[in-house]
Write a structure and sequence with these properties.
Elements (H helix, E strand, L loop, with lengths): L1 H13 L2 E5 L6 E4 L2 E4 L8 E5 L1 E5 L16 E4 L3 E3 L7 E7 L2 E7 L7 E8 L7 E7 L4 E8 L6 E2 L1 H6 L2
Parallel strand pairs: 10-12
Antiparallel strand pairs: 1-2, 1-8, 2-3, 3-13, 4-5, 5-6, 6-7, 8-9, 9-10, 11-12
Length: 163
């Protein structure tokens, strides 16, 4: 049994598993014995700067100069650009220990997209949102660390793997 748990834990930590986004709330996703809700992590929208300023709200569209009615990200460059849409988001669960998942927000203007990596950090009470940069071209990368990057519900077998 222990070998099985170790092997499963190794597999889980190296493979991304897609989560299903809730049909009525884009800030909730479930799958692989978990349910995540990111709506309470921050008082959205939040901002980060790296060359340009980015405004982010994964729950409700951010205004972006009329470019998109569904923008999760708006990049303030020479003019505002939608840098990823809410309702096309793809959630990938990367790790149970620490909790970590990524969300891809695709289909911004001119193929722009944004990746946000959410990582559990028990020492980060208020959370941190940071822009990492653009790589590859027109793909924007961000990190969120927060003590509450964890599921609002997890199956017993998932919790057992964290021990």
């Amino acid at each position: 049994m222990m070998k099985t748990c170790v092997m499963l834990s190794m597999l889980v930590s190296t493979l991304g598993m897609q989560l299903k986004v809730d049909a009525t709330n884009p800030c909730i996703a479930t799958g692989n014995g978990t349910k995540f809700d990111i709506s309470g992590l921050f008082d959205y929208p939040i901002k980060a700067t790296k060359t340009y300023e980015y405004t982010f709200n994964p729950c409700k569209p951010v205004p972006c100069n009329g470019e998109s009615n569904d923008a999760a990200f708006c990049q303030a460059a020479d003019f505002p650009r939608a840098a990823g849409n809410i309702h096309d988001a793809i959630w990938i669960l990367d790790s149970y220990q620490p909790w970590q998942f990524r969300i891809l927000f695709p289909n911004g203007i001119n193929w722009r997209a944004s990746w946000v990596t959410f990582t559990e950090d028990p020492d980060r009470e208020n959370g941190k949102f940071e822009a990492l940069g653009e790589y590859p071209f027109e793909i924007y990368n961000f990190n969120i660390t927060h003590k509450d990057v964890k599921p609002v519900w997890a199956a017993d077998w998932v919790l057992a793997m964290r021990q």
